[in-house]
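During the no-cost extension, the postdoctoral fellow (Dr. R.K.) reprocessed legacy sequence entries with the updated structure-token encoder. One reprocessed record is reproduced below for audit purposes.
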Amino acid sequence: MKMNRIVSSVALLAIASNVLMAGGDIETVEPVVVQELVSDEWKFQFSPMFLWGVHINGGSTIGPTTAPLELDFSDIVDNLGAVFTFHFEAAKGDWTYFSELQYVKLTPTMDITPIASMDIDFKDYMFELGAGYTFSQSERSKWEGLLGLRYTQQKISTTLQPVNVGLLDVSNNWTDIFVGLRNTYTISDEWTLLSRADIGAGGSDFVWNAVVMADYRFNDWGSVFFGFKALDYDYDNDKHGLDHYAYDATQYGPLLGLNIHW
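Re-encoded structure tokens follow.
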């Protein structure tokens, strides 16, 4: 997540001793003046399958029933059915374009009676697309303003076992617009600190997101990062009866992943 303006210099073409003998006079050719050219080049980075050790703290409402959500990372790992994540950035000049996808499927089972249980299928899908513009920059620090869209989809279905009868099937999706700031601070050639905060609304009544992480560049093509991320939703579909769905919870936990640069 580095700035991508590369300054290149034209090589000096000096003709220091090209002497022309004509009529006893010596003519010396002046050296060519060096000019500095600034060029913008595209730079890309991709983080495949990064780990977000999510904890969930809040509540969820389905129909007339509200239930607390208190899930530790260990609970999520124990009930994990599938996961897929990536983060991608493309930068040129003062502009950066980014996208991120997170998909988690949880498949817990809850015992109801000694002979009956309920299988739960919970799918949480988030995709964001945005752009950042560098409005302030020094030798070590860069500030960007952020603007983007975040799409969220959550699906919950339950099945009564051993009779395999479906009890509940709820699906909700919404889109929020967000604005924010991002700072990149260069400590050394290898170490960089990145912090980001944004707020938004739209489908949600309110949503906020915050990230702090360190990035270690181990060679030209790769770096590893670690830090902490929190994402908080206050969502209500404003429907009535069994169609009512609300999600008011904070998802938070440590980040760890690999960045590929080219």
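Residues 128 and 150 are 4 Å apart (CA to CA). Residues 1-39 have pLDDT under 50 and may be disordered. The remaining legacy entries will be reprocessed before the final report is submitted.
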